[in-house]
Amino acid sequence: MNSYPHPIIAREGWPFVAVALAAAIAVHWLAGVWWAVPLWFATLFMLQFFRDPPRAVPADPKAVLSPADGRIVTVERAQDPYLNRDALKMSVFMNVFNVHSNRSPVDGEIRSKWYHAGKFFNAALSKASLENERAALWIRTPEGADITCVQVAGLIARRVLCYATTGQRLARGERYGFIRFGSRVDLYLPPAAVPRATVGDKVYATETVLAELP
Q: Which residue from 32, 148, 155, 192 puts its CA 20 to 30 A from 88's CA?
């Protein structure tokens, strides 16, 4: 995944963009521009949804980087349901206008991976963390800090894509997954981690520091 070339449009979106573009061209050619207008708008929507720009990685090794674009909807003390520990929970909600590539928040080794089929509540709701379809990674940093990173499907999102595997090492900002059409990412951090973002903040994958590890 380090070799992922950041081709501007995420590879997950190529079939969607191709189908929308082909339909728009066909209707435009056969029926005229006005009939094709909705399909051209659909093509533009697909292009903006599946955009996948490269991101600059902050230098601070203790920084926990945002795994997704969106807004912070949760900063609270909570129980990590995967590692059964007290944690600082931070959640990023992505709407359909955000970039939906997911990137590693820290350098580390994947110690375990979980997938849970589930429901499709609005991803902005707290219950989505435990009831929606989701994929979770347990990442241990070189310093021994444990991070749980959870992709959560949303009301419209029906596919969580996680390419990372147990035993793999991820670099901060490395692309490891994608969620289609609106969703959230939850982070469970060590309790001593210090949040650097608050509820309502707009954040960007890799470039925004969410917290600092002890």
A: 155
